[in-house]
Amino acid sequence: xxxxxxxxxxxxxxxxxxxxxxxxxxxxxxxxxxxxxxxxxxxxxxxxxxxxxxxxxxxxxxxxxxxxxxxxxxxxxxxxxxxxxxxxxxxxxxxxxxxxxxxxxxxxxxxxxxxxxxxxxxxxxxxxxxxxxxxxxxxxxxxxxxxxxxxxxxxxxxxxxxxxxxxxxxxxxxxxxxxxxxxxxxxxxxxxxxx
Length: 195
Known about the structure:
Layout: H1 5-143, H2 150-194
Helix pairs in contact: 1-2
């Protein structure tokens, strides 16, 4: 089939239009792809920015939480140290009071024992004097010393003194045993009352 010149021109023109149309489609597609790529890049950048903001917020919250935890922990440790120091001071104060109280109790006990000893010695001296006087009077009456000669009287007086001393020591031993039992009973009663 042989085309005329006009038909050829028309065909060339149609072919050129098709090529232009295809090129236009390609340009549009490329433009759309570029816009799509830019949009995706913007979305990606926004997502990354949002993620970074979330990470920064979380990091700040974690730092704040950790700082608060450390602050509370430090305060707790300081409080524990203060409480330990206070307990140590309280224990030291109680120990000091205990030592002073024991010292005072020992002093009181010593003074009490000295008082009892002095009272006992005074009572024993008084008893000894009375006993020896009474026994001397009794022996003097029995022997009628005034009727004896001087030498015999002195010998009898020495015998009487030795006998009086022996009797007194016996009486004193019995008396001290009784008094010791009374003091033991009194100390036991005082200890029971103190409990």
